[in-house]
């Protein structure tokens, strides 16, 4: 990555943190109290950690939700194992804090973990979920790099399982049966990088790949895959969907 690109990437998170703190809203005590029994589980994407979703977590904390934001080893285990471990532990944490109404906010792979977990066992108290840049139809990027022989020995299993071929877990899962809103980035029409989408996308996941049958709402925003989770307008839409079950169209 060029030096300028690295610098931008390093500065993006601190800038996002300051933006969230600067835009914090004062919540009425009755509203905060009413949301305290609603737990929002945040699930980061591949190659990330819980730190990447800290600004989103603080935003939701200020809205009065109980939040759980755990890291999981996305590079070490297959998707079913990742889903079972991190979501079971997150649910246990929600319940220990007295919050039994369950919601999710996910980025990329995190959304597939929720679909995988829900396909195996019901999530008691499940309310709503917002997925940011989820490869719900499988990922062209993952399929491309998963097919390169010399990378097969070192690539995480989750990458192969995110593809579009026979091993694709997203494509093996059925329609969602919970209230779901999907936010997809459409900031790029194409990219010159091999294997990446040559159609409207967030630079990694195309608009078409983000769609899943059964979702309640779908919102395209001018954001990229890496930075959408730190965008204040995206955060606003996340909070709006969790509250109303739809995205706000007039902002």
From TrEMBL:
Instruction: Tell me a Gene Ontology molecular-function term this record carries.
Output: hydrolase activity
Q: Which Gene3D superfamilies match?
A: alpha/beta hydrolase
InterPro entries of this UniProt entry?
A: AB_hydrolase_fold
- Keyword Cell membrane attributed: no
Record bears the keyword Hydrolase: yes
Question: Which UniProt keyword terms apply here?
Answer: Hydrolase, Signal
Give the signal sequence positions: 1-28
Entry protein name: Alpha/beta hydrolase
Q: Which organism is it from?
A: Halioglobus maricola
């Amino acid at each position: 990555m060029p030096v300028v690109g690295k610098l931008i990437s390093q500065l993006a998170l601190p800038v996002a943190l300051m933006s969230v703190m600067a835009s914090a809203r004062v919540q009425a005590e009755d509203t905060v109290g009413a949301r305290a029994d609603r737990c929002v589980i945040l699930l980061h994407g591949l190659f990330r950690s819980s730190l990447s979703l800290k600004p989103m977590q603080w935003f939701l904390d200020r809205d009065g939700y109980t939040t759980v934001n755990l890291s999981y080893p996305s590079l070490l285990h297959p998707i079913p194992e990742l889903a079972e471990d991190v979501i079971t532990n997150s649910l246990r944490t929600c319940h220990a804090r007295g919050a039994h109404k369950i919601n999710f906010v996910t980025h990329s792979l995190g959304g597939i973990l929720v679909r995988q977990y829900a396909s195996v066992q019901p999530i008691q108290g499940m309310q709503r979920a917002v997925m940011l840049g989820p490869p719900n139809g499988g990922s062209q990027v993952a399929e491309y790099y998963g097919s390169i022989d010399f990378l097969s020995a070192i690539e995480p299993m989750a990458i192969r399982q995110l593809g579009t071929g026979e091993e694709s877990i997203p494509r093996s899962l059925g329609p969602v049966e919970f209230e779901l809103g999907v936010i997809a980035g459409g900031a790029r029409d194409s990219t010159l990088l091999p294997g990446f989408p040559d159609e409207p996308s967030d630079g990694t996941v195309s608009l078409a790949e983000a769609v899943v049958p059964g979702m309640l709402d779908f919102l395209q925003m001018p954001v990229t895959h890496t930075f959408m989770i730190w965008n204040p307008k995206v955060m606003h839409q996340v909070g709006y969907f969790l509250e109303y079950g739809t995205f706000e169209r007039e902002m």
